[in-house]
Amino acid sequence: MLPLTPGQPRPQNRKKMAEELKQVADLITANIINCTKEVLTSDEAARYLGISKSYLYKLTMRQLIPHYKPMGKMCYFNRQELEAWLQTNRIATDEEIEQQAQAYCLKKGGRK
Fold this sequence. Notes:
Blueprint: H1 11-36, E1 39-41, H2 42-49, H3 53-61, E2 76-78, H4 79-86, H5 94-108
Antiparallel strand pairs: 1-2
Helix pairs in contact: 2-3
């Protein structure tokens, strides 16, 4: 057995640390792939959107989300289309609504 120097982890801790580092590296790699990959599988799309796979399935069945079925069974998603879909149905802020109301009133000039 090798002598331990102060601050050096024990062998069993080294193994655990190595496993944890590998998990972190795998997560980073998966995130990089998800951010650069153009076509996503159902699993990847659900993870990318932060929703469950079953909810993603409901959205595809109701044709509420853009998707592709090149062979009739497996669903694939275009990452850019998913981003555009996420940004639909924007809700205006109170300030924007107030500005629209003022612009409408000025345009109408108080006419009935």
